[in-house]
Amino acid sequence: MKKWLLLSFLVIIASMVLFVSCGTPSSTTTAAPSTTAKTTTAATTTTAATSHPPTVPTATTVDSSIVRGGTLKRIVSSSPTNLGYPPGGSTEVTTLERLCITDVRGQQTPNLAESWDIDVANKTFTWHIRKGINFTDGTPFNAAALKWNFEQYTAGGRMYYGEAIVSYDIIDDYTLRMNLNDINNGMLFNWGYVQMISPTAFEKYGEDWCRQNPVGTASFLLSEFKRDTILKLTKNPNYWMPGLPYLDNLEMIVIPDNMVASAMMQTGDADIWFTTAQFAVELEKKGFNVRWEAGGTMDIILFDSKDPTSPFSNKLVREAVEYAIDRPALAKKIGYGVYEPATQMTSKAIPGYNQGFDPRPYNPDKAKQLLKEAGYPSIKTTLVTSPTRANTATAVKAYLAAVGIDVEVNIADQSLYIATTFRNGWKGLALAGAGMGPDGSSIITWFGASPSTLRSGVEYKSPEFLEKCDAMLHVYTYDEFLKATQAVIKQASDDAMAVPLFHSHGATVFNQYVHTTFGVTSSSDYNPREDWLEPR
Is the overall model pTM greater than 0.90, yes or no? Predict the structure, then answer.
């Protein structure tokens, strides 16, 4: 059987604080098997391997019609706080580069890394990095620099699976081996996602300076930054990929008001905008190109089910909540005709989806029956959510009231909502958004044994669920991974762990004259080096 290693997914959006996003918290994500590297496994006394040959990235489109030069203007909803020191927090995606890039199928492909070897039997992960790449301060990107970046991420608490790293060996200038105490199929995505900066710049100027002055390997260089106003980048004349970038300049304009942003797109004062379904649908009707997210965000009801005194610790009560909500009607009302009602914790477009699985369709009479059986014919509770989900919360309140669950809705400001759902926990119910990726393994990011997003610890996780999560991390063929993912998602439904409501999809809106890779995979993977503009 052909070996697959680490088919990675993106977290979009809703699980990352990006300059292009709507303000949801950062997370590191788990990945699934992919074919993009050499993998050594020891199923017997001999080893089986597949390999990914070294590649030299070039422009994917060789076309005489491509126009060089010009300035691409992208609207963003908020200003970055960190331009150049990713170990200190989420960083603007266009100012630094990563070892790997996620392709349209969700697989990790070489970028600064040329290839990698993963030895499951001996628990080593070896990176082969591309020769001849320099940071923008002229210092080399080499194995020592890679090791330094990994160590900075670990010290900053942002190196997912960092506890598995025992030591590093610099084999030569372009080869770094990681010696591990455990290995799983989520490491490539998370470690390939690390953004690289110059150790020399950091040691010379310090963290605060680096936050505002990115010194990486990127295709564009910082030329101007005004917090909450604009970020301007200019072409890197010494970029390591020959012939790129095509553009001369890239601008990110901070416009938090959607009406103003929409008007700017229509007047041609901006070229790209990552926005909500409402505005994307409106602009698509006016002739704009729209590229919908592959993953998106799942709106989901969470329970304080770990508390034995909570009515939601009773599985029958959790099932009743799911039966009480008409999710197709809710998705239609909230989602402008493009949201997908959820029957499980993944979308139909994602391989981990269990076809035809709809365990608890809308049935308010069934909900009332289950509440009675559980000994809770009526319940008074609270529901915490963010301002962006106020309309959804109001609809949920009405559905639950109809079956005897009286909900007081608490609309928290964004920072309190994040602290509550991602760290501190809540009493009763929470209505949250969970970032989706194209292979279904996001569920480990939200609910696994060590979640990187919903870390509050108030939700009950059955031993069966956690066992299936662990099994999902330790399979190394694509078919096995799909089966394991489907099993995890089904177990979550069997446990009534949470109630998925609908899958929403943000959208990249861009003018007809724009050729961009933004939104082809994830906004967090965006590299503008191949973007270009037709004359207008």
Answer: no
